[in-house]
Design a protein that fits this description.
This protein has 95 residues and is an all-alpha fold. The protein contains 4 helices and no strands. The longest helix is centred in the N-terminal third of the chain and has 22 residues.
C-alpha cells in the first residue's frame, strides 16, 4: 500500500502539470498582456533617467560595457544634448 501512495504522491503532480500544459492555450491571454504592459510602463516610469546627466552616465556605462558602439554612443549623446538645448542645432555625427 505504501508503494501505491508513493507513486500517487510522485506522479500525480506530473500528471496535473501535463494536463495543464495540454489544455491551456498557447501564449499570454489578453489580461496577462495588459498586466505585462502596465508593469513595463511602471518600471520605465520609475527607473528611466529623468535628466540629461543621468542619461549621459547611462550611455557611458553602456559604451564601457560594450553594449553600444562608438557610433551609437555619439548619436545618442548628440540626441540627449540636443534635447538639453532645444535652441541649439545638434552637432553632425562623425562618420
Amino acid at each position: 500500500m505504501k508503494a501505491v501512495w508513493t507513486l500517487v504522491v510522485i506522479f500525480l503532480p506530473f500528471l496535473g502539470t501535463l494536463i495543464y500544459l495540454v489544455v491551456r492555450p498557447a501564449g499570454a491571454t489578453e489580461q496577462e498582456r495588459q498586466a505585462i504592459d502596465t508593469a513595463s510602463r511602471q518600471f520605465v516610469a520609475r527607473y528611466a533617467p529623468t535628466d540629461n546627466a543621468q542619461q549621459l552616465a547611462l550611455l557611458t556605462d553602456l559604451r564601457d560595457r560594450g553594449a553600444l558602439t562608438a557610433q551609437e554612443f555619439e548619436a545618442e549623446k548628440a540626441r540627449v544634448l540636443a534635447q538639453a538645448a532645444p535652441g541649439r542645432a545638434p552637432a553632425e555625427p562623425a562618420l
